[in-house]
Design goal:
Blueprint (H helix, E strand, L loop, with lengths): L3 H21 L4 E3 L1 H12 L4 H11 L6 H15 L6 E11 L7 H11 L2 E4 L5 H13 L17 E14 L10 E5 L7 E16 L3 E8 L4 E8 L5 H10 L9 E10 L1 E8 L1 H6 L24 E13 L3 E13 L10 E4 L4 E7 L5 E7 L7
GO molecular function, one term: serine-type endopeptidase inhibitor activity
Family: Belongs to the serpin family.
Pfam family, one: Serpin
Length: 378
């Protein structure tokens, strides 16, 4: 049986990393909590001792619960691989090693059996490794992410763990292009910008408080949706993030069917970063230390194995027809409540907002992000 904890912990990890990234840079941000959580789970299975304790805390599963974590991921992949008509969702995992280095058979078996991970060998110290891994990611993200690696992992690379997610879906009810009009959007800083504002009316799952409005726009036959949260004019995205992390935002039961009008800008957003510092800020230290990193469950070699970087890239486009999104996470390991409301609502998304592409059944966030300025695509 699928443990709801996987959904809660994955979404929480996404929000916590998001908060760390917001401290480092402003502007449009996007990431895939599911991609990051899955890639970290691949690494977690190879860890031991203090490294394992820290990664377990990050993922919300103690080292003694690794089998439960793996079973939950396997069950989630099975669920997500049957999203129904109108939704294209591709999930893929891979582990890359040098031909002359063998990983532990039980580690590889876990990744293959529970995560459907492919095991491939390549030259991790040369250009061929970069070409092979980049091609695999491109092939598994409809070529939306082409260059997750820009340089070889190096001579000390033990394994490269990669997750890729690709999503494409049409709205259950498309926006009429003829109703899309130029409109003003007001970033948190600077003058207003002109955007292409989509518009439609209908009945939606909707919630609101004095701090925000939220609506769920379904894809396909309703198996997945985009959650759009618009903070009130005097309520910031940072304050909204705090409410989301603290669990103050309502779950499924807080949303009710309500008629209204939604205006949402077309947008496209691409983002890439090394998550190493953000993950370290969340308490993971040993995993990145060349002296104390312990991934002995991954391979039998004399030198400590550690994580040198966690590369994450995401891309999303939202228009009248629907949404297309992709994300990939690469881990390089080396040795050495809503009040009652009446009447139709009006939700005009003309200032910075939060969004998440979620599985409607479980509430798992495949992608999340915030748009400070829809006219900025990178």
């Amino acid at each position: 049986m699928l443990d709801s904890r996987l959904v809660q912990q994955t979404n929480r990890l996404g929000l916590e990393l998001f908060s760390q990234l917001r401290k480092e840079e402003a502007g449009n941000l996007s990431l895939s909590p599911y991609s990051i959580g899955t890639a970290m789970a691949l690494a977690y299975n190879g860890s031991d001792a203090e490294t394992s304790e820290e990664l377990g805390t990050l993922l919300g599963y103690a080292p003694s619960e690794r089998e439960q974590l793996n079973a939950d991921h396997s069950g989630m992949m099975e669920l997500l691989n049957h999203t129904g008509d109108g939704i294209q969702l591709s999930l893929a995992n891979s582990v890359w090693t040098r031909k002359e280095l063998s990983l532990r058979k039980d580690y590889l078996q876990t990744l293959q059996n529970q995560y459907s991970a492919e095991h491939r060998t390549t030259d991790l110290a040369g250009a061929q490794g970069v070409e092979d891994i980049n091609k695999w990611v491109a092939d598994n993200t409809a070529h939306k992410i082409k260059d997750i690696l820009r340089e070889p992992p190096g001579n000390n690379a033990v394994a490269v763990l990669v997750n890729a997610v690709y999503f494409k879906a049409g709205w259950k009810k498309e926006f009429n292009k003829e109703k899309t009009k130029p409109a003003a959007f007001h970033p948190a800083a600077g003058p207003a910008v002109q955007v292409d504002m989509m518009q439609q009316s209908g009945s939606y799952l909707y919630a609101q408080s004095e701090d925000w409005q939220a609506v769920k726009l379904p894809y396909g036959e309703g198996q997945m949706d985009m959650l759009v949260i618009l903070p009130a004019a005097d309520f910031s995205l940072e304050e909204l993030q705090t409410q989301l992390k603290d669990g103050a935002f309502p779950g499924k039961q807080g949303f009710g069917e309500r008629s209204g009008e939604i205006r949402l800008p077309r947008f496209q957003s691409g983002y890439g970063t090394d998550l190493k510092q953000a993950v370290q800020a969340l308490g993971v230290q040993h995993a990145f230390d060349p002296r104390t990193g312990n991934f002995s469950r991954m391979a039998d070699i004399p030198d400590p194995i550690y994580i040198s970087r966690i590369v994450h890239q995401s891309w999303i486009e939202v228009n009248e027809r629907g949404t297309e999104a992709a994300a990939s996470t690469l881990i390089d390991t080396r040795a050495g409540s809503a009040p009652p409301v009446d009447g139709p609502f009006e939700m005009i998304v003309d200032r910075p907002f939060f969004y998440a592409v979620e599985d409607a059944q479980t509430g798992l966030w495949l992608f999340l992000g915030e748009i400070e300025d829809p006219t900025v695509t990178k």
